[in-house]
Amino acid sequence: MVGNRQAGFTIVEITLFMAITGMLFLVALAGTGDTIRTFRFTDTSRSLEAFVQKQYDDIVNGLNNRSNSVSCSAGVIDTATAQAVGSSNCLLMGKLIVFRQGSSTANVYNVIGSEPSTVDYSQNDNDLISAFSPTAVTATATSTYNLSWGAQMVGFKRVSDNVAANGILLIRSPKSSRIVSYTFKVPAVVPNNLSSVVNDANALLKTTNYCFKDANGSGQQAKLQITSAPTQEAAKVIFNAQTTECNGV
């Protein structure tokens, strides 16, 4: 005799189904979180690379953001005197980018100079740059860049001598469009006079790493690497950087 038992699921079967479904949902959710963090860190990395490369372009194109409410004469900025842009005898030479460990912000300063009364344009680029007495403008026309998604700089290293060079000085040669790079350790107070930097052979055209890390706890780390190339190709981001690549002192 066939019984009249109805087909269906037992409490145990339903409980197992719900448990497995919940676990699958959590795994999928965790995977989605990792994917989002990876996309965000990639965006951070590419944005930083594009920002630094743009500094090279701005220098080559002579972009001048000096306000006409300040003046410049013989390489000296006067914030109390007005002067039409383009009418000073100062030369806009480049940019100084300063990173700080543990910070999400980079500060950017214009670098100016003045042509000496007598100058030998047959000199090499570095000696010619030195003759123009490059000076960082820290009192006005500064700008900042914020790493996206809360990423932070975690270390710096000039590969040749392990110096924690957190500054990138980019100067266009007065006789060509070639950009010369100097990497050096910037003190707490950014110096105006950059003569000691451009006269330091250890700072000139050296490969330097600037490591930054994801702020979301995924442990992702990459490095912005500056090489000796005279164009924006000198700035490239490399993923999966190791701590030892940026542990300068």
Structure explained in plain terms:
- The protein is an alpha+beta fold.
- The chain has one domain (11-63, 90-246).
- The protein has three helices and twelve strands; from the N terminus they run αββββαβββββαβββ.
- The strands form three sheets. Strands 3, 4, 5, 6, 8 and 9 form a six-stranded antiparallel β-sheet that branches.
- It starts with 10 loop residues before the first helix and ends in a 10-residue tail after the last strand.
- The model has no long low-confidence stretch (mean pLDDT 87).
Layout of helices and strands, plus pairs?
Layout: H1 11-61, E1 71-73, E2 76-78, E3 90-98, E4 105-114, H2 125-131, E5 135-137, E6 143-146, E7 152-158, E8 167-172, E9 179-184, H3 195-198, E10 208-213, E11 221-226, E12 235-239
Antiparallel strand pairs: 1-2, 3-4, 3-8, 4-5, 4-6, 7-10, 8-9, 10-11, 11-12
